[in-house]
Amino acid sequence: MANPERVVLVDGSNLMYRAFFALPSSLMTSSGQPTNAIFGFATMFRKLFSGKTPTFGAITFDAPGPTFRDAQFADYKATRAAMPDDLRAQQGGILEVCEAHGFPILRVPGVEADDVIGTLARQAREAGHDVIIVSSDKDFGQLIDDQVRMLDTMRDVTFDAELVRKKWGVRPEQMIDYLALVGDKADNVPGCPGIGDKSAVELLAAYGDLDSVYAHLDELKGRQKNALEKGRELAELSRQLVTIDQHVALERSIDQLRVVPPEASVLNALYVALEFYSLISDADRDALSEREGDTHYARVGTHDALAALLARLNDRAAPVAVVPVFAEEPPAITPLAGLAVATEPGRAWYVAFEGRGEVIGGRGFATLARWLNDPARPKVCHDAKELWRGLTRQGVALEGVVFDTRLASFLVEPTRIIPHRLDQLSKEFLHRTIRPAKSVIGSGKSQVAFLESDPDDLTEWACHLADAVVSIYPAVQQRLREEGQEAQLLERDLPLSWVLGRMEVDGILVDVPDLEAMGVEFRERLAELERRTWELAGREFNLGSTKQLGEMLFDELGLPVVKRTKTGYSTDSDVLEKLAESHAIAAVVLEWRKLAKLINTYTDVLTRSVHPETGRIHATFQQTTGATGRLISTDPDLQRTPIHTAEGKRIRHAFIAPAEHRIISADWSQIELRLLAHVSGDPELIEAFREGHDVHRRTASKLFDVPLAEVSPEQRGVGKTVNFATIYGQGATALAQLLKIPRADAKRYIDQYFNVYAGVRGWLDRTTAEALERGYVTTMNGRRRYIPELSSNNPMDRQAGIRIAANTPIQGSAADLCKAAMMDIARRLEKQGLATKMLLQIHDELVFEAPDHEVEVVTALVRDAMERALELAVPLVVDIGVGQSWGEAH
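Predicted structure:
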């Protein structure tokens, strides 16, 4: 055929199950409807339509009821579990996605989907078309030839004849006989017992097909021959079961199954309903061109144009959207290239400070700065901290910000999987996309700085950003008010963003030579551990390869197998720790892994993160990542800097104070347990904290029925673990694993704990009941966290939701307390004119850099603010240390 058409045949049943189990069950709508399998279908279609649009095709599903294979073998597919409830609930949505993409849907009673695909593939092949079968089912390997290929969209792998041979060791025409020998566990096809993959490949390589194998049975010996003799009937039955029928009767032939290209507006409407905002496309060009016809975007690069813009801005009472454009993709201290402002939807200007084309220069910037600094001129931003940071670097104090769409989106939906980026909110609220930055500056080797980009492209892109902010602002504000979270934004999160911006700009000083010396020392020790491992193993191998390590430990050294994974032996930390009790090599490998992680995650990353001009690390503190409201440090992640090992403590010593300054570390003591005592009102816990007892020792005393003075360190450790297990909602199984004790003992500890702290039990029960009724929990300051897992049909997801309901009010309230203290400290430092800087927030710890002469006054100030951050039924206790380095202070 001169111009073969593209035919796509989708194994719907296969894809449905794979998507359901591969994608997280937490993928659901805000109302709690599971959508992980639906999302898998949607992304599959996106890949299919990214290239040449198929002309013909179909998506097939197994129809209810028996097929001819059930008649041949009563146990066919007998081991398959019933369809999960959460998958069953998505079937209608899956069909909607298929229909919206213009794919015919086939379900043929009495015929399996594989046979429908086999028949359509044969018809397409005979018509001279190219065929793509979308599936991961190895059964389809038998259909592959020069015209038919199989696409696994979830792994992005296309199987041709050569890849079939590499994957399974046989040619496509041998796949039927290969499966006849090895069977298929997924369908309960028995195969020939005693013949595994390796034997099947060897036999088919030697004799070609199953009939020839049996024709030469006398040439074989031992167990292989016996297995083939005994399993002949099952092998021949299996061959019938795995053979795809390519001649089933269908109402429509392949040339009647035309794929209708999807309409972007239809897809976008469906994706909005399913909350798949990341998939929304702006391919609906008619609607977009109409929208773009209403826009006015302009570049401001002269003083006259700036004066006209400022007159317009000063006349407005409504908030103006302001978006920064940085000279380069912004680390914390990158200067601004310009600002985009939008007064209303469709009206935006880009004020260029520097770059190609006309720019306003320093005098113009000073004029604009007066408007930026005016608290009477309301402004709305998306990530006001980023704007504040950029302006602060250039000596301008940003005032008048009344709303932040990013922070507001997080407050409304803190658990959303899709980030709270502006492009995502634009898709969600405006149903249109925003050009990525790389469309302006390029990517890879061709990437340029924004200052060097095309002025017209930069202007249009920046104006799009500001237009999006001013357009989504009313809708996001309305949702925030409906959720009762506006006060959280205006009184807490927005003021905190200025504090965090200051911390990011200031950064923390690092002793780079010390870090580099540590890296060299750690690498030398790593090499020595590697040599010791090889000596114990008897040969060299790659310690970083879990496959090679597993083969060495279990195949060559004969160590007992603890557990397996889908791909082989497990060599995770739990396995190695268990083996280390009696095998030296496992202990050395564990030490090697810990040291390798220190090098790769800390010393190397931290060294690269030091800014060459300031000698400091300028981390970013994320407000919209932690679902409980906790702050997250990124670029680099300083919150995971280890503290409990000697090496970890050494790394903290590399964070230093400049000359004539000291590092101050202030850490709340047992803040989560104190909050638990407060919210639960439990008299035993309250008394313990009010009297200044060691609460872990007191819990151990109750669990083991011994006087406080006689509690051993081991017993106190148990008490501590049980205390925190309560906060994290862990049951007897999890506690047993933590303590390495029988589950019955762990259950006894939990029961005894709740006998002692009955108020905690009552609070947990009330909190869970309220969460199940309302669908969310709140912190002490009223921050909400919705928990869609509570409405899941999956029991494991529901249990996870119950644990979240128990933990969030404690962790979230701890985050609220920490933020309140940070804002109070920042206000006090500014009011008293102190030069001390707040540098880091690490879990329950705040880190400061203070001039020597301010240490005493700042220590008292910090302690007072942290101990008064929230009024509780128990005292807040703060431990404070001072030193030349973070390690010395903590």
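Summary: Residues 644 and 650 are 11 Å apart (CA to CA).
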